[in-house]
Amino acid sequence: MTANLNITDRKKKVLMVVANPSTSTQTGWPVGFWWAELTHPYWAFVEAGYEVEIRSPDGGPLQADSFSDPEDDSGYSAHDIVSLGFKHSPTHAALLADTPSIEGVRPDDYDAIFLAGGQSPMFTFVDHQALHQLVVDFYEAGKVTALVCHATSVLLHARRSSGERLVTGKTWTGFADAEERFADDFVGQRLQPFWIETEARKLEGTNFVVDQRFRPFAVRDGHLITGQQQYSGAEAARLLIDAVGR
């Protein structure tokens, strides 16, 4: 009876992978993760009673994209009080001060994986073979595997152990061309080295879909979950919670 209670009462555990800081080869600007794509899913998981572990591909301190900062002079994310609270909580800010790397991660130790986006993933996730393998390992272990916004760039290249693309036969989403166009117009120059939607539509045997620009939108196909952009993080988290349970 005690053993059964322990199994029942065990907290669900999700691994959140957040991008390391980098420099855009497109603009020369520093790039990082997007606050809302970390904090809004994090809050959804905590409210559901989950244990959340934050790591980055290479480990170390993390830095957010400036436009995602609710205190940035641009005012672009001034509405994001969830991220503002996370940023100013010493306990939560400490989670990003020196992240462990993904080295040695075992899917069996978690119930799900969630990759947050931002501008950095377009430069640091897209060709990171260890990260691609980790995503595939979670997926092939039958674990819920979620990716949001520019983190979905991983799915352009990740292949299963059979050699088949992970997204073959799957319906999925990611940052839309219309959203890239809006972002480019907002800053007055091209931001990304490629556009996920453009590249995804070149792939055979997969179904890439998008909703209206900057509207919460996430898709679940089996145990693969994807979210379109920064307003889709909480939506993707809810789909993950529905799939994993509480």
Please report the distance between the alpha carbons of the first and last residues: 20 Å
Largest sheet: 6 strands, mixed
Strand content: 5-15%
Number of strands: 10
Spatial arrangement of strands, main beta sheet = 4-1-5-6-10-9
Could you say which overall geometry the principal axes of the C-alpha atoms support?
Answer: globular
Mean pLDDT: 95
- Estimate percent helicity: 25-40%
Q: Report low-confidence residues grouped into runs of 5 or more.
A: 1-7
- What is the overall number of helices? 9
- Helices and strands, in order, run as HEEEHEHHEHHEEHHEEEH
Structural class: alpha/beta
Give the radius of gyration: 17 Å
Tell me about this structure.
The chain is an alpha/beta fold and 246 residues long. The protein is 31% helix and 14% strand. It is built from nine helices and ten strands. The strands form three sheets. It has a six-stranded mixed beta sheet. A hairpin with a 6-residue loop joins β2 (22-23) and β3. α2 (35-47) packs parallel to α9. It is globular. Mean pLDDT is 95; it is low at 1-7.
